[in-house]
Amino acid sequence: MKKTFLAALAALFAMPALAQPIPVGHLMDNSGATSDVGLPYGQGVQDTLSWVNSTRRGVAGRPINVLGFDYGYAAPRAVSQYQAWSRDRVVAIQGWGTADTEALIRFVTRDRIPYISGSYSGALTDPTGRARPGVEAAPFNFFYGPSYSDALRGMLQWAKTDWDRSGRTGRPKYVHMGANHPYPNSPKEAGETMARELGFGVLPAIQFALTPGDYTAQCLTLRNQGANYAYLGNTAGSNLSVLRSCQTAGVQVQFMGNVWGMDENAMKAAGTAANGVVFPVRTGAVWGQPVPGMETAQAISRTTDANAYRTVHYLAGMCAAMLMVEAMETAAANGGAISGERIRDGFYARRDWVPAGFAGLCNPSTFTAEDHRGTMRVALYRAVVTGNTSQGTVGELMANGTMKLEPVTVVELERRRDWQGW
Amino acid sequence: MRPAGDYRTTYAADMTVFPTRNSRLAMLAGIALACAAPLAFGRYELGLMINIGFLGIAALGLNILVGFTGQISIGHAAFFGFGAFLSAWLHETLHVPVILCIPLAGLGTAVVGLVFGLPAARLKGLYLAIATLAAQFILEDFFARARWFTGGVAGRMTESVTVAGFSFDREETYFYIVLAFVVVMFFAASNLMRTRDGRALVAVRDHYLSAEVMGINLAYYRTLSFAISSFYAGIGGALYAHYLLFVSVEAFNILFSIQFLGMVIIGGLGSVMGSLMGAAFMVLLPEVVQALADQLAGGSIDRAIKLGANISFLREMAVGAAIILFLVFEPNGLAHRWRLIKAYWKLYPYSH
Amino acid sequence: MDFTLFFPLLLNGLIVGALYGVVAMSFVLIYKASQVVNFAQGEFLLVGAWVCWWLLTTWPIPFWAGFLVTMAFMTLFGIILQVVVLRPLIGEPVISVIMATVGLSIFFQALMKWIFGVFAKPFPPIFEAERIDVMGLQVQPVYLLSLAVSLFIMFGFWWFFTFSKHGLAMRATAFDQQVAQSLGVSVPKVFAMSWAISAVVSSVAGVVVGVVNGVSSALSFYGIKVFPAVILGGLDSIVGAVLGGLIVGVLENLAQWVDSEFLHWGNMTQIAPFYALVLILLIKPYGLLGTKNIERV
Q1: A126 close to B (CB below 8 A)
Q2: Chain A residue with minimal CA distance to C121?
Q3: Measuring CA to CA, how many Å separate A388 from each of A382, B299, C123, C125?
């Protein structure tokens, strides 16, 4: 404690002009309805930024001062915290949920603060406001990975080939499931439209809350409707309740999760009920796979826990944080000021952008002033659970093969103009 | 606290709002001091004071219902939310100036309160409490469905108050709007208790059968107190909406309703100023817990219990524990303690 | 109209409703004995389920042993709560006592999240069979066990209040505290006992739900679900509580059926019981089976 204090003091005297910290807001959900996935993602962002501070001396010699806030997934609390941050003159914000990110679009556009969200809502992808009537321009919103809508479009394309390959006859039926909340609702229209285009029968959506519970009634409805492909729009915690209830009720449906809808923790909690769920993974590899970027990831992970298994969300949090850090470095290059506008331009500076040291882990992203869809590539994985998951940690279960993440396919979607913004 | 030997000789003197000249002076001085607050405080402190202001107004409404009329409501946040949505909706669809939207939202919420208060004419005690719990869930569900009114689950943006081209969009300026409403609403509540209606409410609380025998229309006054309480909640909600500039159904949940009850109980049931004290306590408590956690950050206690990631649980636990501790050790609330302190200094050093 | 969905949902409603009935019963027990409306009933389920989960995953003990230890713990838990928090509040207005239980509820919900985290955690498998077929509906065996336990508890309550000395003392206390006291009933002991029994019975429901769906903070929502149930039945009627629980369970599932067949509004499952509650209260202000207070001046 004393040593670090002295070191900090020494550093302060050594470079008085440079050491002024860069304030960055970090909105997390550690206690609310989506904390099951918000916790690992937030941890990933936090560890990465503190790793950048300790090993790379921050951005351009200035440490990043991360102002964290747990808003419990309540949009109004996020808005009031944003107003406090705008007083503290933060230059960028690492955000989280769809409801709060969409509510803040107008504020961050006014204040010119880049906002890197954990929400991948299609409504955040249009910086000009011209792509689709009724969707406002979001020139300062960014996220890492395919949008919810694009991920669902990719999954539906896979579902179509899966159906054709299985040799079953007739029209496959698709149903959207999720809470009545901006986040599960976000890709609903896009998914149903796409499903109709592909020749699916579209069933009335089924609602279930964002909290775990007994969803037998929903599963019986699902079975009765005769759905073949069901999209799970919620986060892992409540999705796994549906999976368990449906397994008990003997419902045979191909479930498709969203990016937050399934992960290693949920596979352990759901056990064999999670077997067969298909969902998009945003990174090029999952924890422990031998890609060049994994070493960096392990170094980051060690800053808080030497031998933890990190879920897909933790890795995605790292990539999101690194995009922001490199955009800041671009802004600071040649002695430039690290301001909101220059950071935004930093996002436009590269094509097929993979943060240095994260090759094979973070997928390439491309942002332009016309289009904030960072990637159109949807990598689908299947959760495979073969045995009892109640004993042992997630890391052990993954290591001994009781749980596996199996690559299914990679769908390269066309960058269609009429798919932007929703 | 009146000095001994001060016998009132007229009804007017007995019914005055300020019992002594000094209390009136103290009141005026207090308002003058509050007016000077933006000069002395930063935006963070002013933000807290604004929060205390609009929550205090809503808590006062609940106190009129619970503390003065003896009816329990577990759905106050829903009425607060209705006021917020109504004010935002009035401004956006009918283009009413925001400064008029706020009182109109109060009136509109009063009407809704009247409707939900109708069962109060028939229900008593716990059955009423649980009927208001149902009102909370039903209104919440309505907010999530009624896209035309609330913007659905995505919420609705609002504008700040603008009068004659001057925009009250900063803490320093919006503070005066809230202060004005606080003064008016609290003065009105103090006055209410001097009227026939106000005393009828208290009579209903103290013994409703006797009140009925004395010719007080129970059904009328029970519903009336719901309407008044909702009026206050609506004003508070509207002030909240135009401060935060964003209204969403998520804010108005059962936990928020319970916090209002907590404010009323911690402040003191049946005390006008107690409502403000209770609101101040509930706003400041989480800030104090946060500050304490920040003090401990990085230390060994922090590492042992992972304070950083669990701070919101700690805040919630502090709220729960504060409510229980107040009920056990200070059942009459902060207002009562304040009176005891005043009495102590008045009689000092001969306090016995 | 499609009835293939109707009957499974009805059956599911009855099974879930039986659990609501058990929780409602333990809620009414506290109310009858000590006139306290317990807003922390859901936290009894939560604490019980987490304790049992912790025992079973930390120590290599069989399910029944963990279950018994949990019940012993909950007995103590109920008594301590009553003695430490509720006893000093005897004689305070109803609203204060309600708020105290609300405070308890907030406190324990946060504490459990802090200790056990926010992930839903699964119980180790307890039964060999994955599921059992009941008249066309696949259910987990533990649900059938819960049905048996519920019936057993309901029978136990009936016996307790009709024949046992303590049960009679409890009824006497509920009827008139002063008279009971003068007849030699220890009122504080009766209060403590009612809290202990209530905590134990609720935790049984908590463990059952935990085994079925995994343990998570969502368990405490049963504490809210219990209000429509007890109000439907009448606050002070044990039979009414069971009936109310069954009605709420069936109502939820029927709302789901109506919604999926005709309305497509969504969220009807959650909200339907509250509409029913308001309607019933408008017609019968003391619930279906509650005693009407006759007031004299």
Answers
A1: no
A2: A269
A3: 18, 40, 11, 8
Work out whether strand A403-412 and strand A377-385 pair parallel, antiparallel, or are unpaired: antiparallel
Residue A13 has pLDDT above 60, yes or no: no
Residue in C107, C231, C281 nearest the CB of B320: C107
* Sign of the dihedral through C-alpha A38, A43, A48, A53: positive
What average pLDDT does this structure show over B267-286?
A: 90
Return the SS3 of C215. strand
- Cα torsion at B238, B242, B247, B251 (round to 10°)? -70
Instruction: Please name the residues between 172 and 191 in chain A that touch chain B, using a CB distance below 8 Å.
Output: 180-182, 185
Whether C164 has its CB under 8 Å from any CB of chain A: the answer is no
Q: Indicate whether B251 pLDDT > 90.
A: no
Q: Which chains touch C (3 or more CB pairs under 8 A)?
A: A, B
Are A76 and B248 an interchain contact pair (Cβ–Cβ within 8 Å)? yes
Percent helix / strand / coil, chain A, rounded to 5: 45, 15, 40
| C9: its two tokens | 């949902």
With a cut of 50, say whether residue A1 has pLDDT above it.
Answer: no
Which residue has better confidence, A4 or B273? B273
Q: Could B331 and C92 be called an inter-chain contact, meaning their C-beta atoms sit closer than 8 Å? A: yes
Inspect the interface and report whether the beta carbons of A248 and C218 lie closer than 8 Å: no
CA distances (Å), origin A15, targets A20, A57, A262, B73, C263: 9, 12, 46, 60, 67
Nearest CA in chain A to C251: A217
Instruction: State the residue for tokens 């009579």.
Output: B203
pLDDT per residue as tens digits for the range B194-239: 888 888 888 888 888 888 888 888 889 988 999 999 999 999 999 9
A23 vs A1: CA distance, rounded Å: 23
Distance from C-alpha of C253 to C-alpha of C269, rounded to nearest angstrom:
7
Comparing C-alpha atoms, which of A83, A79, A69 is closest to residue B315?
Answer: A69
Contacts of A70 in chain C (CB under 8 A): none
Judge contact between A126 and A149, C-beta under 8 A.
Answer: no
What pLDDT sits at residue B6?
A: 65
pLDDT higher than threshold 80 for residue C297 = no
Distance CA A98, CA A75 (A): 9
Q: What is the pLDDT of residues A71-123, one digit of tens each?
A: 888 888 888 889 888 888 899 999 999 988 988 998 899 899 999 999 999 88
**Tokens found for residue A172:** 């496959």
Distance, in Å, from the CA atom of C270 to the CA atom of B128, rounded to the nearest integer, reads 21
- Indicate the burial class of B188 (C-beta count within 10 angstroms; 0-12, 13-18, 19 or more): middle
CB-based contact, A311 to chain C, within 8 Å: no
Contact A323, A352 (CB under 8 A): no
Searching chain B, which residue's CA lies closest to the CA of residue A68? Answer: B308
Partner residue opposite A87 with nearest CB, options B43, B251, B312: B43
Interface test with B, best of A26, A30, A124 (most B CBs within 10 A): A30
Which pTM was predicted?
0.88
Mean pLDDT, residues C272-296 taken together: 78
For A115-224, where are the E strands, in sequence order? 115-116, 141-142, 173-178, 201-202, 206-207
Please tell me the predicted confidence (pLDDT) of residue B308: 64
Binning pLDDT at 50, 70 and 90, where does residue A142 land?
A: very high
What does the block give as tokens for C115? 């200790």
